[in-house]
Design a protein that fits this description.
six-stranded mixed beta sheet, Insect_cuticle, two-stranded antiparallel sheet, Cuticle_Struct_Prot, mainly beta, structural constituent of chitin-based larval cuticle, cuticle, Cuticle protein
């Protein structure tokens, strides 16, 4: 029998950005929570999720470059806002290799694959886009999470 719990954290990255996570579970195995970040330039990702006997759902709000919201994995809805002026060019010009966002771990099932803390894909320290899509900002955007960002990823394109 699952036991109720609640956990949360909030961590500044030392460069004007902030990441956070909050989650709670009940005695029936239902889980709900949210996580996200905002960087010093105004880029953000906010994810609200729930999981239980009926499955997993997530709502993502972001203004990250390269995300258009046209491709929504199963049970995930994306609300994409315009990327702040001057940001898109910084993240898309060739600057070097990006690398992996970190080692992923998480929970979930089906084509979505779960919530990952660090996933393949992502913006490799302002380098080129890495394996499989946007996945998260690597190398330090999430203070307190070793190497890698947090992202909901699908088996298809690496959110």
């Amino acid at each position: 029998q699952p036991k109720p719990y609640a956990t949360s954290f909030q961590a500044p990255d030392g460069q004007g950005g902030l990441s956070y996570r909050t989650e709670e579970g009940d005695g029936s195995g239902n889980v709900r929570g949210s996580y996200g970040y905002t960087d010093a330039q105004g880029l953000f990702r906010k994810v609200q999720y729930s999981a239980g006997p009926a499955g997993f759902t997530a709502k993502i709000n972001t203004n990250e470059p390269g995300v258009d919201g046209k491709e929504n994995p199963a049970d995930v809805s994306m609300n994409v806002e315009k990327t702040p002026a001057g940001i898109q060019e910084r993240y898309t010009r060739p600057v070097g290799s990006g690398g992996r966002g970190g080692w992923g771990s998480g929970f979930g099932s089906g084509s979505l694959g779960g919530i990952s803390s660090g996933s393949y894909g992502g913006l490799g320290g302002l380098g080129s886009v890495g394996y499989g899509g946007l996945g998260g900002i690597s190398s330090g955007a999430f203070s307190g999470i070793p190497r890698g960002g947090m992202g909901v990823r699908s088996g298809k394109s690496g959110y």
